[in-house]
Specification:
With 125 residues, the protein is mostly helical. The chain has one domain: Four Helix Bundle (Hemerythrin (Met), subunit A) (Up-down Bundle). The protein contains 5 helices and no strands. It has helices at residues 2-40, 45-63, 77-99, 103-109, 111-124. The longest helix is centred in the N-terminal third of the chain and has 39 residues, at 2-40. The protein is elongated, with a radius of gyration of 18 Å. The termini are far apart. Residues 4-10 and 13-23 have low confidence and may be disordered. Keywords: Signal.
Length: 125
């Protein structure tokens, strides 16, 4: 009986893990969106840094996660990863500006994200 419950617990855990995988990319993209808004509204370099770091972390997770709608077709994945890397690069540049105390310049740098988002969402969303 104990083995049965242990097996059932493992089965439930495994199925919940697989069930949440398709949502992970969407969740990471939502985190990216929220943190980008918070970074653009930051009133200090520290606040900007905290939000842009969370943004970059979510982007890194997104970069290695293939969209489920592609059904395992990896032909578009390198281009998708390249797009995410461009976003990470812009965020890193903005982060460096904020570290130098150039908060306004860092916020201005974030405007490049809008163009990248539009371009890559047309291609891969």
């Amino acid at each position: 009986m104990k083995k049965f419950f242990a097996f059932m617990g493992l089965a439930i855990f495994a199925s919940s893990t697989f069930a949440t995988n398709p949502i992970n990319l969407r969740d990471e993209m939502m985190i990216m969106s929220q943190r980008l808004v918070l970074a653009s509204k930051a009133s200090s370099s520290e606040e900007f840094q905290n939000n842009i770091s969370a943004f970059i972390n979510a982007a890194e997770h997104s970069k290695v996660t293939m969209p489920t709608k592609w059904n395992g077709d990896q032909s578009q994945f390198p281009g998708y990863q390249q797009g995410i890397q461009k976003v990470i690069d812009v965020a890193t540049e903005a982060s460096n500006l904020a570290k130098e105390g150039k908060l306004d310049a860092a916020k201005t740098k974030l405007y490049e994200m809008s163009e990248l988002r539009q371009m890559y969402h047309k291609l891969y969303k």
